[in-house]
Amino acid sequence: MQCATHPNVETDLRCSRCEKPICPRCMVQTPVGARCRECANVRRLPTYNVSRGIFARAVGAALLSGVALGAAWSFFNLLSFFFFGIFVGLAVGYCVGQSVSWAAGRRSGPPLQAAAVGGTVVAYVVRMGLLFAFGAWGVSDLRTDVFGLIALVIAAFIAASRLR
User: Fold this and answer.
1) Do the domain assignments include residue 47?
2) Residues 87-96: pLDDT tens digits?
3) Which of 49, 73, 83, 99 matches a 20 to 30 Å C-alpha distance to 18?
C-alpha cells in the first residue's frame, strides 16, 4: 500500500486511530502507537503561536519603544559617552524586549525576537541621527562609535533573549 501523504512511498504502517496508511516521515509516535499528524493533534505551544495581528502589535511596540529609547540614549550619550553607553545599551535591550513581550501578550518565539532586535536597531539609528543633528563630538561616524556598536550588539542580545 502507498502512504496517503507521499504516494510514491510504500508502507505497511497504518495510523492506530484512523487506519490511514502512513510512512515513517509522516508518523508521529504517541504513547498509544504510531499516528498520522491529524490524529496525533500536533500543534504549536500557545506561547509560540503568533498571529498576524499580534505580530503587527509587537512590531509597532518595537518601533515606538525604539524611537523613544533611541532619543533617550542620545541624551545620555551627550552627558557621558564612554563606558556608560554600554549600560544604556543593556537598558535599551531590556526595555525593547519587555515592550514587545507586553504587546504580544507575553508570547515568545523567533518572529518576536526579530521584531525586538529590529527595535534595538531603530533605537541605534535614532540615536545616531540625533547625535549627528547635534554634532556631538564627532561620534556620528560609525567607525568611531565603538562603544555604541558594542552597546547595540548587547542590546540586541538582551532583547532577543527576553523573548526566548
Assistant:
1) no
2) 888 899 999 9
3) 49
Question: Which grid coordinates belong to 136?
Answer: 556631538
Quick one: 32 and 59 in the same domain?
Answer: no
Say yes or no: 81 and 21 in one domain: no
Strand partners, 35: 28
Residues 136 and 155 reside in one and the same domain: yes
Dihedral, 136, 141, 145, 149 alpha carbons, nearest 10: 120
Q: How many of the other CB atoms lie within 10 Å of CB of 1?
A: 9
**75-98 burial: b if 16+ Cβ within 10 Å, else e:** ebbeeebeeebeebbebbbbbbbb
For the chain, the straight-line distance linking the first and the last C-alpha, in angstroms and rounded, comes to: 43
**Alpha-carbon span 30 to 10, nearest angstrom:** 22
Domain count, the chain: 2
Chain segment 14-26, per-residue pLDDT in tens: 999 899 999 998 8
63 and 14 together in one domain? no
Rounded CA-CA distance 116/25 in Å is: 35
Q: Which residue range is the domain that position 110 belongs to?
A: 52-162
